[in-house]
């Protein structure tokens, strides 16, 4: 079977888009155009975007935004207000640490304490009629980095389906979303990255239908200071990186946005806590620990095969 892949750079990562028919190649650039359009609306890494307009107006006024921005903010805020670990209002804390950037530093306890007062998602007012968002306290900031890629991947899949693309791969750097039936008995084979190997070696293989596979890990961005390593996944309760013995969480789900959300919830709640929250049998998780043990949710037991014998599966 022929394969047509284009590589782009956007969303702070390498994007790979693949279709399997030459006549569908124009859908690759259409998808990239959509990525750029969404990034222009949603980014907080530039001075101008719709999300930055909301942030600049914090404590002053509600800001009306496009349907794309409002729909994503609404979903992110509703999940955040459940107080299970995911927090779209975490922007001030992320900016304070700035892990992954050259100016990253370990902040003082006083600085952290001041930021914790600004990350309460219940201080966000949504108005469906005006599609407006109001951050009630000056200094509050939305950061949709933990959910935007999933939303965009789902939007590309919808675009491709409407354009007649019946088979493809959307890879947004850690977010893989499959379109249509796989080449082997209708399923796809997807490698799960080893969090201990920067060469993207796999610890195992998933065999799944046209689902999303999202992997998050503490190995992705980190700060080394005075003998301590600080990763980028923040705990909204403490203001410090989440204390965990996890290295990575992979989520298998029909929608990529759910994969983003549940990968965060997996880190905050670990295996046992996440199982208590999970009420959708179509969402499966793989937890990889620092001691090289791997735990799966029950619905992935017959879909995942461990291929690296330096890891071990545990019940």
Automatic annotation (TrEMBL):
The keyword Metal-binding applies. GO terms for molecular function: metal ion binding; transferase activity. InterPro entries: ApbE, ApbE-like_sf. Magnesium. Can also use manganese. Its cofactor is Mg(2+); Mn(2+). Belongs to the ApbE family. This is FAD:protein FMN transferase. The lineage of its organism: Bacteria, Bacillati, Bacillota, Bacilli, Lactobacillales.
């Amino acid at each position: 079977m022929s394969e047509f892949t284009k590589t782009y750079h956007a969303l702070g990562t390498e994007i790979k888009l693949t279709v399997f028919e030459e006549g569908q190649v124009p859908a690759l650039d259409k998808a990239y155009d959509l990525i750029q359009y969404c990034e222009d609306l949603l980014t907080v890494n530039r001075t101008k975007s719709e999300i930055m307009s909301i942030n600049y107006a914090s404590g002053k006024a509600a800001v009306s935004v496009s349907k794309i921005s409002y729909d994503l903010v609404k979903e992110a805020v509703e999940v955040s207000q459940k107080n299970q670990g995911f927090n779209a209002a975490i922007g001030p804390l992320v900016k304070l640490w700035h892990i992954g950037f050259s100016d990253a530093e370990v902040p003082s306890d006083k600085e952290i304490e001041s930021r914790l007062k600004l990350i309460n998602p219940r201080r966000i007012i949504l108005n469906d009629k005006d599609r407006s968002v109001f951050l009630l306290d000056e200094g509050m900031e939305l950061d949709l980095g933990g959910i935007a890629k999933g939303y965009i991947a789902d939007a590309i899949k919808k675009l491709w389906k409407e354009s007649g693309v019946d088979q493809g791969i959307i890879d947004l750097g850690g977010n893989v979303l499959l379109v249509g039936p796989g080449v082997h008995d209708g399923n796809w084979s997807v490698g799960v990255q080893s969090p201990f190997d920067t060469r993207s070696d796999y610890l195992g293989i998933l065999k799944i239908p046209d689902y999303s596979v999202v992997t998050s890990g503490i190995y992705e961005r980190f700060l080394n200071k005075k003998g301590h390593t600080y990763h980028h996944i923040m705990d909204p309760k403490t203001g410090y990186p989440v204390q965990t013995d996890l290295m990575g969480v992979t989520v298998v789900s029909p929608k990529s946005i759910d994969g983003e959300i549940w990968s965060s919830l997996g880190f905050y709640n670990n295996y046992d806590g996440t199982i208590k929250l999970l009420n959708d049998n179509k969402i499966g998780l793989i937890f990889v620990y620092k001691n090289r043990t791997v735990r799966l949710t029950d619905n992935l037991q017959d879909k995942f095969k461990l291929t690296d014998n330096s890891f071990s599966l545990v019940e």
